[in-house]
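Quick one:
INPUT:
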C-alpha cells in the first residue's frame, strides 16, 4: 500500500468520526479542501461512494460503514505501535486537546500551567473552555472534564478534584436590606436569587438541597440571570442577590467576610470534576502525563480511574 493510500484511509476515518470535513481537517492539521480532495481520490480508487455529503452534514454510505469497520481496528493498532515506540522517548511528546468548563479550568489547571509547561516542554496542551456539553469524539478532543454525574457510562473517568459542594451566599450589604431568616430552602421565595444557565443553554440551573434524606430542587427567581460563574460571584459580592456557587470558588470571600453563607446544613457534597475519555481509546504518553500531573500535583487525591459507577 502506497503512503498516500494510508493517508486517505486516515482522512476517511477522521471524517467518519467527526462527521465534518472542517473538524477532521483541524485534527489532521490539513485544509478542508485538501482533505476533501483526498477522500474523492479514495472513492475514485475504490469505485464506490463512501460518504453522503450535504451542505450541513457528512454521513457514511453502506460501503463507507463496511470500510470503516475494517479500517478502524487497523488504525488503532498503528496508533498503539507508534505510542509503544514513544515510550522509549526520554520525555512525552504530542498534542493533547481538552474540552473543559470555565470553572473546572480554573480549579484544575489554574496556576499550574507554568509548572506543567516547564515539566513537559514536548507536550502541546490545547484547552478549549466551554460550559456546554459537547461530544468530545465528534469535536476532535482527546478528553474532557465534567462533573462526575454528567459523564457517560461508556467513558473512562479519572477524578481530578476532591468532592465539591454548592452553597448559597450573599453579601453583608444584601442581608442588611433583606434580613429575613433563612432556615429552609422555601425561605428563598422572599429573596432575590441570581439565576445561572450555561452558555448556549435555555435551561436555568436549579438549586439542589438535601438534609436528613429530604431533598428538593428549586428554580431560582430574581431579576438577574447570568451564564458566567465568575460574574455570578461578582454579582453576589456587589449585593445583587443570593448566589448558588461552588464553595471552593468563594473560600477567600467567605474567610474575609465579603460573603456570608446561608442554608449550610442543606448543602451536601457531591462528586467533583472528572477527566474522561472514550474507553476504547489507548492513552498516549502525553495524555497520561497530563492526567498524572494535574491529579497528583493539584489535588493530592488518591489515584482513581475507571467507569463512573
Amino acid at each position: 500500500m502506497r503512503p498516500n493510500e494510508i493517508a486517505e484511509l486516515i482522512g476517511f476515518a477522521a471524517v467518519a468520526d467527526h462527521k465534518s470535513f472542517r473538524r477532521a481537517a483541524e485534527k489532521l492539521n490539513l485544509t478542508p479542501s485538501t482533505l476533501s480532495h483526498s477522500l474523492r481520490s479514495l472513492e475514485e480508487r475504490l469505485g464506490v461512494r463512501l460518504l453522503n455529503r450535504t451542505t450541513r452534514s457528512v454521513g457514511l454510505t453502506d460501503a463507507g460503514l463496511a470500510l470503516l469497520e475494517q479500517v478502524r481496528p487497523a488504525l488503532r493498532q498503528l496508533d498503539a505501535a507508534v505510542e509503544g515506540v514513544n515510550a522509549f522517548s526520554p520525555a512525552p511528546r504530542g498534542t493533547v486537546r481538552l474540552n473543559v468548563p470555565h470553572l473546572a479550568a480554573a480549579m484544575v489547571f489554574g496556576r499550574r500551567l507554568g509548572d506543567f509547561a516547564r515539566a513537559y516542554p514536548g507536550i502541546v496542551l490545547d484547552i478549549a473552555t466551554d460550559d456546554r456539553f459537547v461530544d468530545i469524539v465528534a469535536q476532535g478532543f482527546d478528553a474532557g472534564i465534567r462533573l462526575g454525574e454528567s459523564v457517560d457510562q461508556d467513558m473512562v473517568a479519572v477524578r481530578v478534584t476532591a468532592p465539591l459542594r454548592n452553597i448559597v451566599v450573599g453579601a453583608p450589604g444584601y442581608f442588611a436590606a433583606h434580613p429575613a431568616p433563612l432556615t429552609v430552602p422555601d425561605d428563598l421565595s422572599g429573596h432575590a436569587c441570581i439565576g445561572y444557565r450555561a452558555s448556549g443553554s435555555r435551561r436555568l440551573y436549579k438549586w439542589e438541597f438535601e438534609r436528613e434524606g429530604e431533598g428538593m430542587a428549586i428554580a431560582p427567581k430574581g431579576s438577574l440571570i447570568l451564564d458566567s460563574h465568575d460574574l455570578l460571584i461578582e454579582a453576589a459580592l456587589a449585593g445583587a442577590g443570593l448566589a448558588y456557587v461552588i464553595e471552593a470558588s468563594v473560600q477567600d470571600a467567605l474567610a474575609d467576610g465579603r460573603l456570608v453563607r446561608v442554608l449550610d446544613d442543606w448543602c451536601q457534597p457531591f462528586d467533583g470534576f472528572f477527566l474522561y475519555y472514550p474507553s476504547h481509546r489507548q492513552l498516549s504518553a502525553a495524555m497520561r502525563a497530563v492526567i498524572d500531573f494535574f491529579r497528583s500535583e493539584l489535588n493530592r487525591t488518591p489515584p482513581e480511574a475507571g467507569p463512573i459507577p
